[in-house]
């Protein structure tokens, strides 16, 4: 038998000062969704958390850093080849 419903969980961590505004915007967005979709439930809960202070890096950040590493390696290779060519000449 196929499931007729799915529960969607979303977890966000925001600065405490922004929490009320974020909740208000999420409620507004859910109200707009309900105009087009059938939604059951829709509670938004808040809880205090201690953040480790360390942010997870996104795939974009990892990709950018890998690109910077590659550029550095190419520059170093260019310098090495240029120096070797100078010694040959």
Record keyword descriptors for this entry.
89 residues; 54% helix; mainly alpha
What is the H/E string? HH
**Radius of gyration computed on alpha carbons:** 25 Å
Broad structural category? mainly alpha
| Beta-strand segment tally | 0
Shape: elongated
Pick out the low-confidence regions.
Answer: none
Major β-sheet, in short?
Answer: none
Description:
The protein is mainly α. The chain is built from 2 helices and no strands. The model has no long low-confidence stretch (mean pLDDT 84).
Quick synopsis:
By secondary structure, the chain is mainly α. It is built from 2 helices and no strands.
Topology overview:
Elements: H1 19-36, H2 59-88
